[in-house]
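name: query_chain
kind: protein
chains: 1
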Amino acid sequence: MAGKTTYESVIGLEIHAELNTKTKMFCSSLNDPLEKHQNVNICPVCMAHPGTLPVINREAVKKVLRVGLALGGEISTFTQFDRKNYFYPDLPKGYQISQYKYPIVVGGSLNGIRITRVHLEEDTGRLQHTDGGTLVDYNRAGVPLMELVTEPDIRTASAARAFAEELHLLLRYVDASDADMEKGQMRIEANVSIRPVGSLEFGTKVEIKNINSFRAAEKAILYEIERQAEALENGESIKQETRGWDDVKDRTVPQRSKEEARDYRYFPEPDLPPLRLTKENGWDIERMRAALPELPFKKRVRFAEQYGLPPKIIAFFLADKHFADYFEHASSELHAWLKGNNADFKRASGILANYLSSDLQSLMIEKEATIRDILITPENMAELIKMIYKNEVSSRAAKDVLRRMFADGSDPSHVVQEEGLAQVSDTIALQDIAKRILEENPKPVGDYRAGKEVALQVLVGKMMKETKGSANPEVTRGLLTNLLRRV
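structure:
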């Protein structure tokens, strides 16, 4: 009896991202991501009133160009908009202005995955389903929408997720999109097929539409791979169709048969002139390339080499460019203080990174603040790290100092002086406190002398509490150990 066929998955992604321009793609209506009220950011142009004419949003074109340059793609010197004809209630015109034959960007790559094209179009409105029927909100209709299409180079669901996460970072770094997936500002569509391992022929492609999280994208692709493999093993054929992801039932569900390009009856948009993206026409591509910021994949390598940070901490900083900038500003203060000693600098930077990603982050979450909101300057943060590095303040006391700094922006040295939190390493100064702690806590003293080493930590904790964290933990441990060993 022949064994089951082993299949290989073939995955391509289509990712849409709303661009963070001030106005919509072809009119002056606001592009407002908050959308607090329905149908307020609309005008005769985006509502397709007769006789109105669209005008291309230059800033939206610039943002797509930045994305294309960051991906290493080829910028088209000639590009044009097309009409993509289909009817849907949230599409006011009955067609979408998009790009078909001449996209703005061709080629490029990310995470080793080849990019087919990056083009610009307008978003649709939003349907709101209620018990009484379906309502249409046109606030989003006409918002600039970038679409990126990959080659079918992806072979696993995890690689698809990693690509989408890296693109999400890149979009934010080049300031093209806020890419907030909870608000629908970035949406993933996956084209999934399978074929027997070793086969060069593609299987029948199924498209999973409008996935709104990285986790859901990975789960949807995994499910679809398993569904198709099971169908083929049962002698069934795969139908080319569009499916949606049911996040409650963890499965893809059929929506409609898959359209082909010819179904949309593309033709050049007669109301918009072609764009010639040349320097003579005011598009200085090389200047834009030179103005690109440091991209996430380059920053990831540099943070590992320059600061010696582990991957988890690097990922934390890369997720928020402003947090990464804050870290680097504070690190530069440490570098100047340590006069370029690389080993000491990496150690001090590691302490800084840990405090930022744990203690400071906890305070920010508690107060619902961002790194741009806090009162602590990078210089003062570096000053606190210096005091920790020089053992002038204990790690326990440093937490209290940081909380005070977070509350009112105080200088750390002033807080330490005012609160009496300077670390005490003088055994003579600590000895009387240690003796009293031993006298007042006979049980852990007896436990330790009976061989229970863990009891020592209880006594150290009481010393730290008594001194408000100012006692040097190592000196305290040694002092208590010596006193406990005396008969």
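note: Residues 427-485 form a domain with the Arc Repressor Mutant, subunit A fold (CATH 1.10.10.410).
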